[in-house]
Each structure stands twice: as structure tokens, then as C-alpha cells.
Amino acid sequence: MAIRSYPTHPTSSVGQNPSLDAAYRRITWRLLPFLMMLWILSWIDRVNIGFAKLQMLSDLKFGETVYGIGAGIFFIGYFLCEVPSNLLLEHVGARKTIARITFLWGACCVAMMFVTTPAFFYVLRFLLGVFEAGFFPGVVLYLTYWYPSARRARVLGLFMSAAAIAGVIGGPLAGAILTGLDGVNGWDGWQWVFLLEGIPSILAGLVTIFFLGNVLTDRPAKANWLTPEQRALIEADLARDAEALGPREHGVLASLKDVRVWQCIAIYFCLVMGYSALIFFGPSVVHDAGFTDPLTIGWIMAAAFLFGGIGMVLNGRHSDHTGEVRLHCGVPAMIGALAIALVGFLIRSNPVLAMVALAVAIAGTMSAIPVFWQIPGRFLAGSAAAAGFALINSVANLAGFGAPAVMGYLREHTGSASAGLWLIAVFELATIVLILAFVPPATPAGERRGTTGAAPEPA
Asked: How confident is the model at residue 191 (pLDDT cuts 50, 70, 90)?
């Protein structure tokens, strides 16, 4: 059972006030396209190692275990620097923080083309984690400044669908680079992957800091691209949302001592185990199924991520519409877990059906993630939110180290990805168990207490 109560879901304002809906649409069109573009670049630079691996391991004489450790050590750097980065965002603003993060991860990605030893590989992957730390939880925090809780699952679903877009773009792009540029200028195809996919992030960081001062405004009250009436509507709506959620503790220590934060960490850890295994070993799983051409592998992964992106957006919209969170997070995770296990059984006997199951696994896992972030957003505020979001993301993302390391070790010692997939499926299946144990059903406040929107006293 839940150890501490969660605030109820506030009454949704979606569709009730056309002027307010228009203001939020304007915010969405102003903020989301650029943030999504940065997330696409981040995701491509983070996971392109999964495609580079198809050539890199044989060229550099690296084993599967070396790859698994290198892919996962990214998350150690991520873990160490994420909370400080998020606290810095709250103090110096979104634009400067995001520009710094984007420029540095792009530079690190380009440097990956010069890897020659396992030690150098580990160092650069660790630094990539350090430099990317804070971007995702920073955006989650930043969006809480602009959207009330009843609108966030949809917005986060849109933002996080950029990961699916990155998968759709990144797979065929990496496959084309691996096959088309291998040997050009004396460089291997995997070196071209890191160079050509890192440069856009460097340029995006420079554009962010020098040209986007009027786009990434820190708060609605400072957005001169909104009319005074729209700013007033947004501020009033956010104030109503905060009141409906009830009093929430502020401060870094508040998030550290809140047992609900650690419950969220346990839930998200299990989700990340599944997702990390799929993104870092997905191309290898496709290869094991008998599809050996890099471009073919890229297109198969692109189709899987397209399916995942559609599921992510639809699930987020339905969660916002119904006000229900835990089943919208737990059920997709359960479907993803069963599909991961099915891939392990079918990878040798029925490759085509295994690829269908892989797409379902990616869709299920991806659909659960944006809805999950509704849970901590209901009880964290202020600096506690800055620290809490980062703490949840950083600690849970240690699974991003564990999953590739375990997958690499088992694949190297068993000759197949099946054993690793079955173990990962157990972790992801635990997601729904933990959600049902820790997160109580949230009744919309307006239904429980009339139309006041005020949250009830904690039980």
C-alpha cells in the first residue's frame, strides 16, 4: 500500500475555456518544437553507439562486455551530475543551462570517433553522461512552470515522442552512414556516425545561447510573446492547480526525505531497465534475428520507434482526458514486459514475429514513461521539484548502466540475447506491481469534492 498519500488529480481545464486553450496552444507551438529538436539530437547522440557497435566492435577488437559497460557507464556520469544541473537550471535559467548541455554533449559525441581503447571508450561515454545530465529532468521541471498538472501528460507525451522520432530518423541515418561512408577519407563508417551526428548538437548549443533569448523564457510572466490577457489567464490557471494539489513541501531536503520520491525511483528504475536494454541492444537483437545489413536494421528499428511514438502520444492524451495515471503507466509497461520475453523466445525460430514483438515492446515501454512523470509532479514543488525530478531520473537511470552491462555479459557468455531479454522482462513486469503497491487511484478533485478543485486532507 502507499506509505504516504498522493494529491488527487485536479479538475481539468482542457476544453472549458477557449481563450485559455488558445494560450496553451501558443505556448506549445512556441516551446515544444525547439525542445523536441534538442531531445532528438540528445537521443541520437546517446544511442548511436548501438548502431556504431555493428562495425566498431570488430574494428577495435572490443567484446560484448566491453560494449555493455561502455554503453552503460554513460549513466554513472548522468547520476553524479543530474541533481546539480537541475538546481543550476532553477537559478540561472533554462536557456543558459540547455545551451551548455547541448554544446558539450555534441563535442563529446564528435570525440567518440577517435576511440581506440576500452579505457578511452569508457571515459568518453562517462563524460557524455556528465554533459547530458540535467537535460531531460530540466525540461520536465521547466514544463511544470508553464502547464498545470492536468495538461502535463499530453505535453510530456509530445515532448518525449521526440525520442521516437529520433529512433525513426537515427536508425536509417546511421545505417546509411555506416554503409555509404565506410572508408571515405580513411575513416570507418562508425567514425562518420559520431562526427556527423555530433556536429548538429554543437551548432544547436550555439544557436540556443546566442539567438533564442525570446523563445526559452523562464516563466509565463516574462513571456512577451504572450498577450497580457494570456499571461494573466495562465498565471491564474497555474495558481488554481497549485491550490488544488494542496500544500507541498519545498526545499532539496524535502525531496530527499519524501518516501514517495523513493517509491517513484523504484518504479522508474524498472522502466529504465527495459528501455535501456531495448535502445542499446535493439540493433543487435535485430542482427541476431538474421537481418545483417546495417540499413535494413536501421529501417526495422525506425518502424519500431514510429509505433512507439504513436503509442506514447495516444496514451498521454487519454491519461489527461480521464485523469487516470497508474493504469496508463502500469499496463503499457506490462505489455512491454511480455513482448520483451516473447522476443527472447522467437528471435531464432520466427524472426518476423520477433520483430513485431520488438515493436510492441518498444511501444509499451515508451508509452508508460511520460505518464509516469505525472506521479512526482503531483507532490513536488519549488526547489524540491528541481531536486526531486533530478533525483528520480538520476538514481533510476543507474538501470541504464545495469541493463546494457547485463545484456552484454549474458550475450557474450551464452551466444544469444534471449537470457538477457528474459531477465529484463522480469524487471519491467515489476513496474505494474510497484505502481499498484505504491500509487493509489487518483480521483479527480472536482468529482470528489464538487467543483472547488481543492485537494482533500491527506489520509
From this structure: very high
Reported as type and span, the H/E element at residue 198 is helix 189-211
Cβ-proximal residues to 388 (8 Å cutoff; 6+ apart), any chain: 255, 258, 261, 376, 380
Our count of domains for the chain comes to 1
* One-letter amino acid for residue 161 of the chain: S
User: For 127-160, how does the pLDDT look when each residue is reduced to its tens digit (9 = 90+)?
Assistant: 999 988 878 878 888 888 888 878 887 888 788 8
Where does the pLDDT of residue 368 fall: very low under 50, low under 70, confident under 90, or very high at 90 and above?
very high
Residue 456 included in any domain: no
Tell me the three cell numbers of residue 379: 507532490
Domain-embedded: residue 452? no
- pLDDT confidence of residue 7: 54
Amino acid of residue 271: L
Q: Residue 252 domain-assigned?
A: yes
223 DSSP 8-state letter: -
**What does the alpha-carbon distance between residue 169 and residue 177 come to, in Å, rounded to a whole number?**
12
Q: Please give the residue range of the domain that contains residue 430.
A: 18-440
Q: How far apart (Å, rounded) are the C-alpha atoms in residues 277 and 351?
A: 19
In this predicted structure, the answer to whether residue 443 has a pLDDT above a threshold of 50 is no
The position carrying cell 580513411 is 186
| 290 conformational bin, left if phi > 0, alpha if psi -120 to 50, beta if neither | left
Report the C-alpha gap between 394 and 268 in whole angstroms: 10
Residue 458 located in a structural domain: no
Alpha-carbon gap, residue 325 to 362, rounded angstroms: 20
**294: Cβ contacts below 8 Å, ≥ 6 apart:** 51, 54, 55, 174, 175, 178, 179, 189
**pLDDT, tens digit (0-9, with 9 covering 90-100), for 373-412:** 888 877 776 667 767 877 888 888 889 888 888 888 888 8
Location of C-alpha cell 520520491: 261
- 283-298: average pLDDT: 89
